[in-house]
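Changelog-adjacent note: as of this version, every example in the card shows the full chain rather than a window. The one below runs 93 residues end to end.
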Amino acid sequence: MARVKSVRTRQFKKLFDRLPPHIQEIARWKFELFKTNPYHPSFHRRIIQSTAHLPHPHHEFRITREYRATCFMDGDIHVWVFIGSHAAFDQTY
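Full-length structure tokens:
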């Protein structure tokens, strides 16, 4: 399988830097998995319903039970825009 193309926004990088170190480590591991298998069942990947009407619907990925990351597709590139706790996710989306 070809490697997946993706970029992180500045906001995503800032949010990532604020995560607890152990969550950062898990997120890095999950991202390595994502690059080879973006549909791995452990992600529980889904379209965020509140964004379904947008030109670029956002996709939610599970990092842990408490943490999520989101991206949208720009052509064949995943653009990462959010990573954080489930509570922060609920406030954002």
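Structural remarks: The chain has one domain: 5-92.
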